């Protein structure tokens, strides 16, 4: 029997409990032995709830129980999750989590600790919710070096951009609707400014490079400056606008960023709408492969957490290698990575400083000069804007 404890009985934690109870016979067959939910940890009481009889308030009850083999954490935040994870792994108890903050900041350390104690630290749900992408990276696609990862990693921003694109709505109006539907928090900064996607691309980049890529080192642009005029130009270019977390290699350097991109209709990310997420990997042998699905939500995230629980149960006393060292990877300056840009300048602007450009006209947009540049770095773009003497309305990178 595999005895399991769940830390946190909020949205994700209750989903994990539901999956463990509802699909128990199926999970037990997959694990090779019975999976038993022994404890749920929460500071609150839940009278009349199915977990009432197994609810505990003290983590020590769980970590000091010699029968516990796997702990799943769904509390969020770095503390006390980090302390709980360390205590569990030091006792050889495998630890599974959906906590992207914990994984981004402490993932490499906890993987090493798990290795030292013949246990496992699994975190499939920390990046794509229910989308399986982390385990395929270290278990299924081991033949490839990944030279690019690009993903729609936040369902809230993708929902907002999709509504702006399809219905012509303004950002403030769609944000309010997303908040009313529960897709966006009352304080949406982590989503709309790209911080959530930044932590997720940091995790993926760390796995791709086998070194620590820190969230704090990744430049991030959010979606608050995107307007209906930007979507009009996107339509003229047969594209849409997506907030992407991306990590790319060029000339021996590694670049990472989060920013809005114009995604052309022949890119598979173009069709990813609403609250759905997708991660596209480019391997040197495989080429492009994409993982698509629900990137958040109670059952989608719980599905990934429980999958990790089963994987841990199938590997008792055995560490499954995940290559991610604590050595820090120095990212190159993202402003030095060359892109083509959609540039919008006020009035009738002189474009000579930008080199060869492709003029773009958008239906219903007047009083400005818009064009697509040749490939250039952001630093060169800034110099060209200054040399033109025109006022910049907006600029967006092209994702193809």
Task: Tell me briefly what this model is.
With 400 residues, the chain is of the alpha/beta class.
List the keywords.
400 residues, alpha/beta, nine-stranded mixed beta sheet, 15 strands, 35% helix, elongated
Q: Could you explain how this protein is built, in words?
A:
- This protein is α/β, with parallel strands linked by helices.
- Helices cover 35% and strands 24% of the residues.
- It is built from 14 helices and 15 strands.
- It has helices at 11-22, 24-31, 59-63, 81-90, 100-116, 125-128, 134-140, 155-167, 171-180, 189-192, 195-209, 228-236, 298-313, 378-388; strands spanning 2-7, 35-41, 55-56, 68-73, 94-97, 121-122, 146-152, 239-250, 253-264, 276-283, 287-294, 341-346, 358-359, 368-372, 392-398.
- Strands 11-10-7-8-9-15-12-14-13 form a nine-stranded mixed sheet.
- A hairpin with an 8-residue loop joins strand 13 and strand 14 (368-372).
- Helix 1 (11-22) packs across helix 13 (298-313).
- It starts with a strand and ends with a strand.
| Helical coverage, percent range | 25-40%
Shape summary = elongated
Care to count the β-strands?
15
* H/E series: EHHEEHEHEHEHHEHHHHHEEEEHEEEHE
Category by helix and strand content: alpha/beta
Question: Approximately what portion of the residues adopt beta-strand conformation?
Answer: 15-25%
Q: Helical stretch count?
A: 14
**Mean pLDDT figure:** 95
The major β-sheet equals: 9 strands, mixed
Which residue ranges are poorly predicted, with pLDDT under 50 across at least 5 consecutive positions?
none
| Rg from Cα | 23 Å
For the largest beta sheet, what order do the strands appear in spatially?
11-10-7-8-9-15-12-14-13
> How far is the first residue's CA from the last residue's CA?
51 Å
């Amino acid at each position: 029997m595999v005895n399991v404890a769940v830390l946190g009985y909020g949205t994700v934690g209750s989903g994990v409990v539901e999956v463990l109870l509802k699909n128990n016979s199926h999970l037990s067959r997959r694990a090779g032995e019975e999976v038993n939910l022994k404890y749920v940890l929460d500071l609150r009481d839940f009278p009349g709830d199915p977990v009432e009889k197994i609810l505990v308030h003290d983590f020590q009850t769980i970590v000091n129980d010699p029968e516990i083999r796997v702990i799943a954490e769904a509390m969020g935040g770095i503390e006390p999750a980090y302390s709980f994870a360390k205590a569990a792994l030091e006792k050889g108890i495998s630890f599974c989590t959906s906590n992207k903050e914990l994984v981004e900041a402490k993932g490499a350390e906890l993987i090493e600790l798990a290795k030292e104690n013949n246990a496992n630290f699994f975190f499939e749900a920390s990046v794509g919710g229910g989308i399986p992408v982390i385990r395929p990276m270290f278990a299924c696609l081991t033949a490839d070096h990944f030279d690019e990862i690009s993903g729609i990693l936040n369902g809230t921003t993708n929902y907002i951009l999709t509504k702006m694109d399809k219905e012509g709505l303004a950002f403030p109006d769609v944000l309010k609707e997303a908040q009313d539907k529960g897709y966006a928090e009352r304080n949406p900064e982590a989503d709309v400014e790209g911080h959530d996607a930044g932590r997720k691309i940091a995790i993926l980049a760390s796995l791709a490079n086998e070194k620590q890529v820190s969230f704090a080192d990744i430049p991030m642009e959010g979606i608050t400056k995107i307007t209906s005029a930007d979507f009009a130009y996107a339509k003229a270019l047969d594209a849409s606008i997506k907030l992407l977390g991306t990590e790319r290699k060029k000339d021996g350097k590694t670049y990472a960023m989060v920013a809005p991109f114009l995604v052309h209709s022949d890119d598979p990310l173009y069709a990813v709408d609403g609250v759905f997420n997708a991660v596209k990997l480019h391997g040197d042998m495989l080429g492009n492969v994409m993982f698509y699905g629900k990137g958040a939500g109670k059952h989608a995230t719980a599905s990934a957490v429980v999958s990790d629980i089963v994987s841990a149960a199938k590997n008792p006393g055995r560490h499954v290698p995940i290559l991610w060292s604590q050595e820090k990877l120095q990212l190159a300056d993202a402003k030095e990575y060359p892109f083509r840009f959609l540039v919008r300048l006020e009035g009738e602007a002189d474009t000579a400083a930008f080199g060869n450009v492709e003029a773009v006209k958008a239906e219903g947009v007047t009083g400005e000069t818009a064009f697509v540049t040749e490939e250039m770095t952001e630093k060169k773009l800034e110099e060209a804007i200054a040399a033109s003497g025109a006022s910049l309305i907006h600029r967006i990178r092209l994702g193809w």
